[in-house]
Amino acid sequence: MSQGYDHRVTSSPSFALGLDFGTGSVRALIVDCHDGSEAGVGACDFPQGEGGVLVSDDPNLARQDPRDWFLGASKAIYAAIASSGVNPTAIVGIGLDATASTPVPVDAGCRPLCFDAKFSDDLAAFAWLWKDHTSHAEAAEITALAMAEGRPYLAKFGGAYSSEWFWSKALHCARTSPVVFDASATWLEETDLIAAHLCGIDVPASVKRSACAAGHKAMFNPQWGGYPDREFLSGLDPRLARLHDSMTGGVFACDVAAGGVSGACAAETGIPKDTPVAVGIIDAHAGAVGSGIVAGTMVKILGTSSCDILVGPSDGSVPDIEGVAGVAHDSVIPGMLGIEAGQAAVGDLFDWYARSCGMRHDDLTEAAAQITPGSSGLLALDWNNGNRNVLADPLLTGLLVGQTLRTTPAQIYRALIESTAFGGLKIIQQIEEVGVPVEQMIVCGGIADKNPLVLQIYADVLGRPIKVSRSQETCALGAAIFGAVVGGAHSNTDLAIKAMTGSPREIYRPVEAAQETYRELYALYIDLHDAFGRPKSAGSLHHVMKRLIEIRQRSRPA
To answer: CA dist 53 to 37, 110, 423, Å?
Structure first.
């Protein structure tokens, strides 16, 4: 497979490769280590399932086949090198990012159990994709036990453990598919498994696990000595204690090399053997790095879901934040705290509606752009895939209020966009209430590249300029930055970020008239948010429909 490249040596002596593993595809990006300019890109869609997702009759189930990752990586790397004209010997390092929490049960050779013929039809032996919510009962159980025992774990996770995360998924497997669980030597996050594959690591104890994935998804924190202790995990199920004991390879920041490219990987891709591969990072966090994140900046990654990332000092000055998904050491920029929040359905929500009404996104967007804020009389809750933050409840569902017999698809589409913006504003307010400033907003991801209407609505609702990240391959660029660091092109991550990221591509500024209406609508959104999302809320909702009609009447063109 390494034959066929046009080995034209470019004028720049060093390049880095970033691999971005999303929900439905993998992208490979080759960038110049000096300024982050893009030399080549390749991509490969995951062929199995629905957009790469293996599903069943259970709407909470979402699995993935790791074969798609391994084969897709080789194809994407090959395409990126072929399109770049870069000699693979000029690639000094590789970085990678992936979805999380997407853990995989593996055997003693670090092979996913689904590769074994006896488990080839058992979905429990595949990767448990980030948006798999089958373990919601186990997540609630983990939360309840931590609260009952007074454990400190939940303070770093917004007060509740999630069904999207590592321990709840492993526990659900142990309960519902014990044959699979008992056959596993350990469980590896997608980032860790892919890094091990690229480096030819076949001993679980030799895998360097990602501080990003471990800190945000598996309750790893130096404050309590690492992962939750054996006693706590045994209180949930003794089999989790065995899993705990198998996780011995250590946890590392992404400026550390997981290993070097194996001979097999070198033969498949043309990248020289032993080229350093960085420890992996979560895709959204890589997007923050590729966007040039610094303290005071929130990077919002807009894709199938959304993820909000900030960084802060690790000196204890950043408090725990109720309802915010995670605060973890070394998870974005090594040596700093990473703060993560987000929403479980954004692009997924828009796609669902476009499919349901049988219209194209472009047509819906064009029509929705003609609608003035508030004039539809509609208000929605963006919980069609549960609420990740600030309520941390996967069993909440979507809601649309204010429909009439004249309600149009475009009005509903716009209301859904507005609902995700309102949800984002609630997260910002939750963070700022504890003294963590959000001084500027940068967005990246597929929606940021494709839908200006979404970004303008976000600017109007959030009440601040929205800057669009320079690169359209922001997550892959963030991964490549770590590749440049482990490859020696930069001595640390801060210097690499300064050199390899740049000014925003575009800025969307809030419109004052729209802001005024959205402040009113947001107040009603909070009424709905608290009434349906908080069990002790006793507020009457009688006024919501009446106020929506008043706003609708006033907002319509004369």
So the answer is: 32, 22, 26
- Which of 379, 401, 386 lies closest to 348, judged by CA? 386
pTM: 0.90
Q: Which residue type occupies 372?
A: T
Dihedral sign, CA of 116, 121, 123, 127?
A: positive
Is residue 266 within 8 Å of residue 445, measured between CB atoms?
no
Residue with token string 């090198």: 81
- In 132-149, which positions are buried (b, 16+ CB within 10 angstroms) versus exposed (e)? bbbbbebbbbbbebbeee
Q: Which amino acid is at 196?
A: A
Instruction: Give, as one character, the DSSP assignment of residue 280.
Output: P
- Per-residue pLDDT of the chain (558 residues), as tens digits, is 333 333 333 445 799 999 999 999 999 999 999 999 999 999 999 999 999 999 999 988 999 999 999 999 999 999 999 999 999 999 999 999 999 999 999 999 999 999 999 999 999 999 999 999 999 999 999 999 999 999 999 988 888 899 999 999 999 999 999 999 999 999 999 999 999 999 999 999 999 999 999 999 999 999 999 999 999 999 999 999 999 999 999 999 999 999 999 999 999 999 999 999 999 999 999 999 999 999 999 999 998 889 999 999 988 788 888 888 788 999 999 999 999 999 999 999 999 999 999 999 999 999 999 999 999 999 999 999 889 889 888 878 999 999 999 999 999 999 999 999 999 999 999 999 988 999 999 999 889 989 999 999 999 999 999 999 999 999 999 999 999 999 999 999 999 999 999 889 999 999 999 999 999 999 999 999 999 988 877 777 877 867 888 898 889 887
Q: State the Cα torsion 128-133-138-143 to the nearest 10°.
A: 110
CA 542 from centre of chain: 37
Residue 1 CB coordination number (10 Å) = 11
Backbone φ and ψ of 203, nearest 5°: -125, 115
Tokens of 345: 């359905």
| First vs last C-alpha separation in the chain | 65
User: How far apart are alpha carbons 165 and 85 in whole angstroms?
Assistant: 40
DSSP helix, strand, coil percent of the chain (3-state; round to 5): 40, 20, 40
Tokens of 237: 């199920």
Q: Which residue has the tokens 């692009």?
A: 347
